[in-house]
Amino acid sequence: MEKLDFTISVLGKRTVRSPISLSKAMGDYIANYTDDSQCVRYDIETVSGGGAWSSGRGKLMEKAGAREQIYFESAKVHAGIVSCGGLCPGLNDVIRAIVMCLWYHYGVRRISGIRYGYRGFLSEFGLPVMELTPEKVLDIHQKGGTILGSSRGYGDRVGEIADSLEQMNINILFTIGGDGTQKGALNISQEIKNRGLKIAIVGVPKTIDNDLSFVEKSFGFETAVSKAVDAVAAAHVEAESAINGVGIVKVMGRQSGFIAAHTALAINDVNYVLIPEVPFDLDGENGLLSHLGRRFESRHHAVILVAEGAGQELMESRGRVDASGNKKLSDIGVFLKDKISAYFKAKGIEINMRYIDPSYMIRGMPANSNDSIYCARLGTNAVHAAMAGKTELLVSLVNNRFVHVPIQMAVSRKNYVDPDGELWRSVVEATGQPRLMKN
To answer: Which helix (H) or strand (E) holds 383?
Structure first.
């Protein structure tokens, strides 16, 4: 059994009355404060006759929300916001939500945007901070990207980052980013504690691949799927309109195939979905190429949807990594395009190939309505947590409830599509593809 501990760290006793006026009563038509005793069970599945669930406090997830007593005095707060890693729909929405909540609900007037990720803390780059006000962020949610800029790496320079936080007198830092960003945030927080400083570190999980653990859905994911659907629709039209037409669409998903899986289910025009979690062969009787040939004989066209991390074992690995420490992937889309073309050319079979890679178009899009709502609630709940003196946590959605997740837990492992689970079973049923293309 996996050891779970969702205990949230705090900076100290909360002695300040919150400036947010809510209720503690039911039925008075006024929203209620959230109490630390309100929790959500993470694992809601059981088996008949399986015995009682353990309800130890460390196994329950603390509900997010505004607390009646808070830790920080608003007039003394200097908040910082940093966005790191690759772009993702909704970044500006989160920044806007944090600024608006700090300013209008808590009366915080010192909010600094750190430019271009963690490198914005380092003196060698000479990047000035951006003063953030409601006027500055008023309409940024209508635009893609991040008003602060973003970059990978430098999260390992914890001593220098802690120095900058101390010099700027920042006592709340919001880190918007994925696995690498939050690992950096955790290390920075530990350095801060070693120095005896009281700085709250609160993360908002950003990973378009939806692969952070204990995060039901990462922001930008729905937008990514909706835009990927458009690409698949175009590939399907092209493939269906040609003799032995092949449409290949490559989507994001370095280690997890959630975007590919959900896109296939959303449009139902995909014939083969290839994801990192499920290996496949190209050659042989049960390989992709043979199945594609049989598909041409019966239907004369095919659409292949592939996650960027799929099939890496089939290609030559260069062993390089990016600034965040992620392995640099070989291009599976181009690889499949070339291999499929060569295979059918050798057989003297005419095919018409169309290859679409919408990755960067998707990353730079503004969030759709659902993602925008989600971002607003994530950002607001991050502020509530930080003002209450909670630290080393992410705001997450679990079992349709907003909760606090220790960063240590969230970065302890990745979230993957379970090849034995319901999602992948639905994909196989929707596409009609072989359950496993291995010889």
So the answer is: helix 369-387
Instruction: Determine the length of the chain.
Output: 439
**Distance from CA of residue 370 to its chain's centroid?**
15
Cα gap 45→141, rounded to integer Å:
37
End-to-end CA distance of the chain: 33
CA 414: distance to chain centroid? 11
Please return the burial class of 75, using the count of CB atoms within 10 Å of its CB with bins 0-12, 13-18 and 19+.
Answer: exposed
- Convert the pLDDT of each residue in 410-434 to its tens digit: 998 889 999 999 999 999 999 999 9
Q: Are strands 272-274 and 301-307 parallel, antiparallel or unpaired?
A: parallel
- In which band, very low, low, confident or very high, does the pLDDT at 56 lie, cut at 50, 70 and 90? low
- Rounded Cα distance, 132 and 113, in Å: 6
DSSP 57: G
- Structural domains of the chain, with CATH: 9-216+366-410 (3.40.50.450), 221-364+419-431 (3.40.50.460)
CA distance 406 to 8: 6
How far from 284 is each of 281, 345, 388, 423, CA to CA, in Å?
A: 7, 17, 60, 27
Does the model's pTM come out above 0.85?
yes
- Whether the Cβ atoms of residue 100 and residue 192 lie closer than 8 Å to each other: no
Residues with catalytic roles? 209
Q: Which of 140, 266, 174, 255 is nearest to 207 (CA)?
A: 255
Asked whether 261 and 270 are in contact (CB, 8 A), the reply is: no
